[in-house]
Specification:
This protein has helices at residues 3-35, 84-91, 131-144, and strands spanning 42-45, 50-56, 60-66, 69-74, 78-82. By secondary structure, the chain is α+β, with helices and mostly antiparallel strands. The chain has a 5-stranded antiparallel beta sheet. Strand 3 (60-66) and strand 4 form a beta hairpin.
Length: 156
């Protein structure tokens, strides 16, 4: 056999080895993260629910979903263990790193540009698209035609 004919097979086997190795590392990191959970930490499940860990068992965890509401989840259902400040920012909406001295940047650019004239002086009239004029002309055309009386028809 020639080495050139075996080269594509060797490349494919090498690529498969590298892909499985990186996937195995990710699985090990996720398992280690789940094993390091402690009561009181905030987590996000793989379904996107945020909760606080109350108890950790071998294959399951007891989560407090809301005050007084507890649920039992499998450890494999935990997607991420969050830091306390990140959990509070997401769940409670607290912004610890927001300083009062820093200016707040708006989401849109409308407030960044000064309007050419004050808002009170602007013309806020509705835009006429011409449908009203066409309907008025049709009514005027009907008025110009002689009205039909009983017994008259358009048939010729």
């Amino acid at each position: 056999m020639n080495i050139v004919t075996l080269l594509p097979f060797i490349v494919l086997i090498g690529a498969m080895f590298l892909m499985t190795r990186s996937a195995k590392k990710k699985q090990q990191a996720a398992a280690q993260m789940r094993n390091e959970m402690q009561p009181g930490t905030g987590i996000r499940t793989i379904g996107g629910m945020y909760a606080t860990v109350k108890e950790v068992h071998d294959d399951a965890v007891l989560l407090e979903v809301a005050p007084g509401v507890h649920a039992v989840y499998a450890k494999n259902a935990i997607g991420a263990v969050l830091a306390d400040d990140e959990y509070n920012r997401i769940v409670h909406g607290t912004e610890d790193d927001l300083n009062e001295d820093t200016p707040v940047v708006p989401d849109d650019a409308s407030s960044l540009t000064e309007p050419a004239e004050p808002a009170d002086a602007s013309d806020d009239s509705r835009i006429d698209l011409g449908k009203k004029d066409a309907a008025a002309e049709a009514d005027d055309a009907d008025d110009a035609k002689p009205k039909k009386t009983d017994g008259e028809s358009d048939a010729k």
